[in-house]
Amino acid sequence: MQKSKSKAQAWSIDLIIAGVIFILVITIFYTLLAREPKADLQELKREGNFIGKKLADPLAGDCAFLEDNEVNPEKIVACYATLPEDFKKENNINSKFCIYLVDQEGKIITVGGRVGFGDEDLTLTEDGVGGDVNCGEIMP
C-alpha cells in the first residue's frame, strides 16, 4: 500500500511543476508580445540633430527655413505645406517628430494656420492655443 501512495504523490508533484512551468512560459510570452518597441535614445538624438541641421542647410530644399538664425517666412510656409511622410522618406528618418515655433513667452506660433510640422499623433501642450493640440493641426 505504501508504494502506490508514493507513486501518486510523485505524479501530482510532477503535474504541479508542469502547470507552474506552463503558466510561467505563457506569462513570459505575453509579456514579450505586449511590449511596444522603444526607440533607441541614441537614434533619437542622431535624428533630432540631423533634422536641426537640415532646417539650416540652404541646399536641403523646402524645409531649410533657418537662414543666419532667422526664420525665412516663405520657406517655413513651404515646409509646413509638405507632407511629413515625404520629409521622413527623403531624409531616412524613422522616428516621430514635430517641428514647431514658439515665441519668447513660450506660446506656439501657427504658420499658415498650422500648429507644427510632423507626425499628427504627437500632442503639444500649450495654454496659449487653448490646451493640448496635435502637431500639424489646423487652427481656426
CA(first)-CA(last) distance: 87 Å
Helix content: 40-55%
Number of helices: 4
Structure classification: alpha+beta
Q: H/E element string?
A: HHEEHHEEEEEE
- Summed up, the domain count is 2
Q: What is the C-alpha radius of gyration, as a whole number of Å?
A: 27 Å
List keywords for this structure.
about 140 residues, alpha+beta, 2 domains, two-stranded antiparallel ribbon, 4 helices, 8 strands, elongated
Question: Your description of this structure?
Answer:
With about 140 residues, the chain is α+β, with helices and mostly antiparallel strands. The protein has 2 domains: about 1-35; about 40-135, no CATH class. Helix content is about 45%, strand content about 15%. It has 4 helices and 8 strands. The strands form 4 sheets. A two-stranded antiparallel sheet has the order 1-2. A two-stranded antiparallel ribbon has the order 3-6. It has a two-stranded antiparallel ribbon with strand order 4-5. The protein is elongated, with a radius of gyration of 27 Å. The chain starts with a helix and ends in a 6-residue tail after the last strand.
What are the SSEs and their pairings?
Elements: H1 2-34, H2 41-56, E1 66-67, E2 70-71, H3 73-81, H4 84-91, E3 98-99, E4 101-102, E5 108-109, E6 117-118, E7 123-126, E8 131-134
